[in-house]
Amino acid sequence: MQLIAKTLYGLEKVLSDELSGLGAKNIMAVNRAVLFEGDQHLLYKANYSLRTAMSVLVRIAEFRIRTSHDLHRYSQKIDWKEYLDPEHTFSIVSVVNSPFFSHTGYAGLLLKDAIADWFRDKTGKRPSVDTNDPDIVFNLHISNDLV
Fold first, then answer.
1. For residue 84, which of 127, 140, 130 has the smallest C-alpha distance?
2. Residue 145: partners with Cβ closer than 8 Å, 6 or more residues away
3. Which stretch of DSSP H or E encloses residue 97?
4. Domains in the chain with CATH codes
5. Which residues of the chain fall below pLDDT 70?
6. CA atoms in the 13 A half-sphere facing the CB of 80
7. What is the pLDDT of residue 104?
8. What is the layout of strands, in order, in the sheet containing 33-37?
9. Would you state the pLDDT for residue 141?
10. Residue 31 has what pLDDT?
11. Predicted local confidence at residue 139, as pLDDT
């Protein structure tokens, strides 16, 4: 699975070395993060072992957009039941640097709507949003046209 370890600027090399020591594969340092591959065992091990990572995320999907509405359209193609069910709550944390969005909250709202619409279409029910104590948090990262 594709994983992302977020870190502070300047610690990417240190984090890469830590990940290498844990057995991560295809390690690539980027700005304030390190991309790598591993299995579920490595995911858990990284979460409790890494000293320089702020968080470890699982990449669910990656796609390019041409308009803000593409975010909703492509997000509805994801099989959300792999991560959530209508009885649980979720929230979205957005980090957006894109000409298609003037506000990160709007991108998060589009993703929230896509998830809710997907569940309503597939199950007739939709999960609720809980920004205080959600069962799962989805991290939305958009850089230019890459989601």
1. 127
2. 64, 65, 66, 98, 100
3. strand 89-97
4. 2-58 (3.30.70.940), 68-143 (3.30.2300.10)
5. none
6. 30
7. 86
8. 25-30, 33-37, 2-6, 55-58
9. 93
10. 87
11. 95
